[in-house]
Amino acid sequence: MTLETLSPGDADAEGLDEAILDALAADGHRFKVWGGDWCGDCQRQLPAFGAALAAAGVPDDRIEAFPVTKGPNGKEGPGVEEYGIEFIPTVVVEDADGEELARFVEDADVSIAEALARDLADVEATA
């Protein structure tokens, strides 16, 4: 099973600030993305995030997509329990050592890329 909604399709990253693209492109950042092609929030948000990752030049080997299904007890799929995934889309950014740096869950007042870039800037400022 794949996560087709992460494909940029017709979405583009035009208008994203260079600082956002730079934050996404930082060396060692790994992106773990949970979503479902059946999910309206994912259909609305993930193509633009996929376009932002592409515009930032994030290589495919640093992006892991985890398709989620609806089960009788909630969300089901790879890593759902391990990462505590309750809502989708969820994007976890980890460093090269696997330490979580930022997390986007379901919705925000800005795009996924902007929310993660903001959180990553906060992490960098306190490092």
Task: Describe the structure in your own words.
The chain is α+β, with helices and mostly antiparallel strands. The chain has a domain at 41-94. 34% of the residues lie in helices and 22% in strands. It is built from four helices and six strands. The chain has helices at residues 18-25, 40-55, 80-83, 112-126; strands spanning 30-35, 63-67, 69-71, 74-76, 90-94, 100-105. A four-stranded mixed β-sheet has the order 2-1-5-6. A two-stranded antiparallel sheet has the order 3-4. A hairpin with a 5-residue loop joins β5 (90-94) and β6. α1 (18-25) packs across α4. The longest helix is centred in the middle third of the chain and has 16 residues, at 40-55. The chain is globular and about 40 Å long. The N and C termini lie far apart (38 Å). The mean pLDDT is 92.
Shape: globular
Largest sheet: 4 strands, mixed
Radius of gyration, whole Å: 14 Å
**Spatial ordering of strands, largest sheet:** 2-1-5-6
Class of secondary structure makeup: alpha+beta
Distance between the termini: 38 Å
- Helix amount: 25-40%
What integer is the average pLDDT? 92
Organism: Halorubrum rubrum
InterPro entries: Thioredoxin-like_sf, Thioredoxin_domain
Protein name: TlpA family protein disulfide reductase
